[in-house]
Amino acid sequence: MTYSLYYAEKSAAMGVRVVLEELNQPYTLIPTSIDTDTPRTPELLALNPNGWIPVLISNGSPIYECGAITTWLCDRYPDIRLAPGVVDPERGRFLQWLFFFSSSLQNAYQMSYYSDRFCDTSDHEASVKRRSINRLRELWQVVDDAIGDSDWMLGEDFSAADIHLFMLTTWLSPAHDHPLVEEFANVHRIAIAVSKRPSVRLVYGTGPA
User: Fold this and answer.
1) pTM (2 d.p.)
2) Residues 168, 194: Cα–Cα separation, whole Å
3) Of 80 and 205, which is predicted with more confidence?
4) Tens digits of residue pLDDT in 110-158
5) Rounded distance between C-alpha atoms, residue 6 and residue 55, angstroms
6) What is the rounded CA–CA span in Å between residue 19 and residue 17?
7) Which helix (H) or strand (E) holds 178?
8) CATH code for the structural domain at 3-80
9) Which of 3.10.310.10, 1.20.1050.10, 2.60.40.10, 3.40.47.10 is the CATH number of 91-197?
10) Could you report the per-residue pLDDT of 24-81, keeping only the tens digit for each?
């Protein structure tokens, strides 16, 4: 089977691409503009009415939302062990962090990069952006504290949750006054470890220093 992935640099589609690489699955990329000034194509809107990527096509059927795609792919190839199995005691924690990343953290980033979507008038955009910075710092601290001395998000076992963590650290931007990843020592440690994986080097390059 060959998957098709609607794709753009600096988007969540990069995380899905890393998962596909880790699973050693063939795929084709469909270059997609994420420029806010560029109208979404009718083809993309037919697959995802929200106009967001990633969208993964499998056997002609689309799946969108990064966390959903990631979980679905991991479950299709359980032998690779990118996610705990359904009856594994760690399954709940894996889903917890994937949902946390997809909802809480990604929402905080959206407040920063798309602040106009969170207020009625442009007069309030600066306030939304300031709140996004504080929210990112709060949420990354939650992740950092939860990691503690563990090697990975789930303890001793690498998983797709670590890929998602790495992806989100690459969205931290000094230009937007975001906190530095170095402020969160445990997060930074895992991000560096993930960046050294061949799949990540292929998709992202060298990763964080």
Assistant:
1) 0.93
2) 12
3) 80
4) 888 877 777 667 777 777 788 889 999 999 999 999 999 999 999 999 9
5) 5
6) 5
7) none
8) 3.40.30.10
9) 1.20.1050.10
10) 999 999 999 988 778 899 999 999 999 999 999 999 999 999 999 999 999 999 999 9
